[in-house]
Amino acid sequence: MPSTLWFRPAGLALAAAMMLGTAPAALLAATPEDTLVIAAQIDDIVSIDPAESFEKSGGDLINNVYDSLIELVPGTSELTGGIAESWDVAEDGVTFTFTIREGITFHSGNPVRAEDAAFSIQRAVKLDKTPAFILTQFGLTPDNVDERVTFEGNTLTILIDEPVAPTFVYNCLTARIASVVDKELVLENEVDGDLGYEWLKSNSAGSGAFRLLTFRPNESYVLEAAGDYWRGDVQLNRVFVRHVPEPATQRLLLERGDVDVARDLTPVDVEGIAGNEALKVDEAPAGYIYYLALNQKVEPLNNPAVIEAMRWLVDYQGMADTFLKGQYIPRQSFLPTGFLGALDETPYSLDIEKAKSILEEAGVEPFTAKLTVRNNQDRMEIGQALQNTFAQAGITLNLSVGAGAEVLGEFRGRQHEITLQSWGPDYPDPHTNASTFTVNPDNSDEAGLTGLLAWRTAYEPGELQEMTEAAVRESDADTRRAMYEEIQRIHRDTSPFIPMFEEVDQISMQANVNDYHPGGGVDAATYWLATK
Amino acid sequence: MTAMMTWLRDPNPQSRTQARLGQMWLGWLRMRRNPLAMIGLMIVLALLLMAAWAPLLATHDPLTQNLSQRLLPPGSAGHWLGTDEFGRDIWSRIVYGSRVTLYIVGLVALTAPAFGLLIGTVSGYFGGWVDQVLMRITDIFLAFPRLILALALVAALGPGVENAVLAIALTAWPPYARVARAETLTVRSADYIAAVQLQGAGSGRIIWGYVMPMCLPSVIIRVTLDMAGVILTAAGLGFLGLGVQPPMAEWGQMISSGRKFLFDQWWVATVPGLAIFTVSLGFNLLGDGLRDVLDPRSASR
Amino acid sequence: MTLLSVKDLYVTFRTESGIVEAVRGVSFDLGRERLGIVGESGSGKTMTGRSVLRLIRPPGRIDAVEMTFDGIDLLKISERQMRALRGKRIAMVMQDPKYSLNPVMRVGEQLTEGLRRRDGLRGAELHRKAIAALEAVQIRDPERVLRAYPHELSGGMGQRVMIAMMLIPQPDLLIADEPTSALDVTVQAEVLSILDGLVRDRGMGLIFISHDLRLVGRFCDRVLVMYKGRVVEELEAKHLMQAQHPYTQGLLNCLPRIGGDRGPLPGLDRAAAWAG
Amino acid sequence: MTLIPDPTPTRRPSRAARRARTAAGLILSLVATLLGLLLVTFFIGRIVPIDPVLAVIGERATAAQYAAAREALGLDQPVWMQFLIYVRDALTGNFGTSILTRRPVMEDIARVFPATLELATIATIFGVLLGIPAGVVAATRPGSWIDQLVRLVGLAGYSMPVFWLGLMGLLLFYGILGWVGGPGRLDSGYEMMFEFDVPRVTGMILIDTALAGKWDIFRNAVSHIVLPAGVLGYYSMAYISRMTRSFMMNELSQEYITTARVKGMPEWRVVWVHALRNVMVPLITVIALSYATLLEGSVLTETVFAWPGLGLYITNALFSADMAAVMGGTIVVGAVFVFLNMLSDVLYRLVDPRARS
Predict the structure, then answer these.
(1) Which of the listed CATH numbers 3.40.50.12780, 1.25.40.10, 1.10.3720.10, 3.10.105.10 matches domain A286-504?
(2) What ipTM, to 2 d.p.?
(3) Which residues of B42-80 are buried (b: 16+ CB within 10 A; e: fewer)?
(4) Model's pTM, two decimal places?
């Protein structure tokens, strides 16, 4: 028995109190019968305009308010009809046609037409907001988009600049930027030729299962079932998403029955509610890859031996089993689970001796480097764990913690030494990650290719770049898969990127909530199937 | 000893020194009768000793991680206050954290009053438009939401212990300036200042050599009373991740990282919280006792 | 007959530097007469006056062999019974109306507080009594004064209000603690004559505390001279000039006389033995 | 963070200064202070190393998109020009558009401020109702156990990190005992009812629901505000009780107190009527000051309790480099400080007859 019994009473009272917390207490708040109440961190929402929205939480909203040309079967990465009921590509490999489903209406009552679909794509390209690259990578520009995206009757035609794997195009069209907006309603609210940009910041013009009732940035939004939905019956009348920043608070709300779903519980909280019969936890891959990027302009980080040694200095399994438990799984390649060509192998593990001998052989003296991380609990903890293991091989890491935009600014400006970053796919096609991790046409500072991770960390991908460009044109799925597998293996072993984890979404909810699809790494959340 | 005490308690002191020492002795007696102030004194002394003897008191290295020993409850073998999410010994981190706390408190206690003293004495000594301008600036800083200003400053300067100190100091100086100015106004017209002026001393020398020393005592009293506030502000900055950077142990930051374990591993956040509470209570009790002793207006009533 | 009898009164305070005795063994008797207590500041005269009302607050403490008022043992009765005596039967006028009147209460409210709370008077009756009390101290504009705040009154006016307030319940004993020393010289005489008249008319006992020996001599029947907490001399006012004690003589000599020599006033001789 | 208002209320101008102040002088100092606030906030906003453009465009943006967003934010202008534009706009009540919410900052503040006002008001009411009696009782028995207790409770309040106390309270009273409502201003169900069934008049839920007669929402709102207001109120109480004690000690040694005792007034009346009325005079400034401090102290409390008020708004903005919002919020808080100072001046005149003439 430890010699510290005297400390017990104080702790005991608190501990006893904690245990009581799991027992049903008198004052249980209940959520309204017909409403799904979700506690989530939604302060990342910058925009709710499909042409601009690019963050996770905004995607959930847009996915339920708008329909896109092509949809994913909820919970999978399988393509299914959206606004377009069928699609095809011509022999030339660049002319894509889409047949628009008849009989669907927008929330305004206007029918959904090919004209609306064409307008939506033209609008997104012309506004040229951040996610526009998903469309512009096919050669669409604000100047040519009116000619290349056309409609006739219920047929939409998109002409791209060069042949690529057709599934690549279709995958891109499931992205939220391809959501179809109500052309007439939007143009009614146009100010100074802004294509309804101001108006769509706080209003919606979709045909999805729900209409947007209220949106209070950083506080909440409420969706209301729009009526007959062409994909099936909407089960719950309302969805109420509350911004709750603290995971601990989300857990309290969930335990007290004040919310149906909590999106952001920490591993500790998930473990804490494990014994609670009234609650359950669903898991889905979140799609985010956590990686280290070593700036190749900085000595000795550009020494292959150093990079190699560092791969052996990360305690992948140790972290995943302890403070990251359940929410991060080791992943040592850049494609997340479920993507074409995704690799599950994890050849690297913590091996300090091996790392030391690699450094010794290469004649690398002990050195100090700066590790930049975002001021976020998980990342700071990963940073501290790295600090610990790196130190054992003589690499001193100084942690530099900053706000998201600050850390990002440093990375984009190529000012970092080592930075801990995460990357989520933009559309369910392997090219989304391959194109940024392995493509860097001009490694000079002046090039300013800030959108490319390879450029940001000054990495010259060499042959990998051609391999990626070839892979995106390959139309045979099996060949394409093998190409991505090879690209990832080379990248894993030679690039200055050290992929470490893939994030897993743990969604905690009341036991009576069913068919809530969080979307995972590929898609956004689907509310309309949920019941309770 | 008795002779010494009689000398100290002599109601008719023979010299300034005797009078002053006698006053201090009386103050000490008065404070010794205040049990709360004595508790405060003991807490502060304990903090000083803890910081000085940290390597002896700590049972583990505060930085060494051991993921297999993480989140052990208090009373576990070898970790009587338990371990944190990296398996680091909480007691050792608390012990080393006291150094950081003292460091911050010490630096703020040196910088903010110094700046306030400068502004206050210059303002009070010159009067006129200098006074107007400086006091207007002081007013602006007083009208500022201090906490928000400190947050914004650290956000601007970047997180880190020196920047946290700077931010706290920059928001804490105006009251000292006020106190110093008030003192200066009473000193300014004194004959001996006039005498020094007649000897041709420059304003700088007069302020530095004659005015500032007169203002020091009242400023120092204010500083003692403000200590606990500084500790809490520093902890708050640490809590928001704007203070000391990991892996160094700082109490506010320890609470912040223990926050997510609050429900299941309560000790990770509770223990540093108690440490902050105890230490700032100690400073508050001591400061309160000192105020009773040093401020004749509130004394013995 | 004896109204107040004090024997061997001690007032002590505990402080850090030990016990301080403010009053040390003071004894006197008082009938319905006017007794003056004279002494320099710190001589214990005010403490003596206040102990009669048991107004010494902790850490101060009152001890006496006897302290009776009209047959009531002031040392034994409860605080409640004491409260019944205060104001109703023993009253006190203090030095400076600027401090002794509540600055944020209208004069009327302060004046009638006792009438309302003790006697339950309300309305017209209350008003009439208040006016009468102010008229009794020769205030010409009582209506205005009732509505005024203390700071709106002159010193002399304030002290008249104070006197009126204290005399409303017709007390048997009035303690006047330096009632005029904060006032202008011209007003002093007026206030004194009002006080004099009222005390005479109503036949109450008066303890007149002052540092001004001549004034006391003019105004009182008997005089106690105090020094360092002790009574050093007690004598009839009319025999003041024949005072025996050197301290009393010293006090008398301090006073400048019109037509007297213009040399420096003699300082007070203080022999430690007097205090012994 | 520190909720300790200055023990010596240096923010309070001297009595002489008060008298000397004319209306014009007041307005002038108000303008000067606000301009100073504008300048300091603007300066801080400029030196923040966080790039606001990145907060708008996110990770994927190309260099061209970056440049376009930068221009849209007016960040391509020289700094002094930006300041002039900022001041000009601020004078017309336009503090720019928040990057985070994409709405005019003034609109945002008008929306979130009532929540903070409601919280700080209830907290101040707590602080006053508990702090004044505690301070008075302590002053009447200096050195007694009750005095020591009041002192200890007050000092404990001065020594506790507010975020800590808030978390503990939430855990105990909501998580374990279930006596109060949880984070946020209402339970989810009631929040939707409030959103759709209650007309917004003041933005303060307690008042709006009372006006609309929606007593079930009102009750729920009460259960939610009790804890955060209690936590903030504790700090307010600590401050008010200490100041009350010290003012009361001072008043109790005044001669008019003796007068009241001589008149035979019972002790409770001496203390609670005669002395307290005088104590209220300086106490008004203290209460105004503590109210202002609570507005500021709500920053961390609102974070812990997910209270959608100004404090939370400013903190969020700060961490996203949303400087327009930070500056707007800071200036509003600063203006409220100045306003409360003026208000306490006016109230002071009402309570103290000496200041009136």
Answers:
(1) 3.10.105.10
(2) 0.76
(3) ebbeebeebbeebeebbebebbebebebbbbbbbbeebb
(4) 0.80
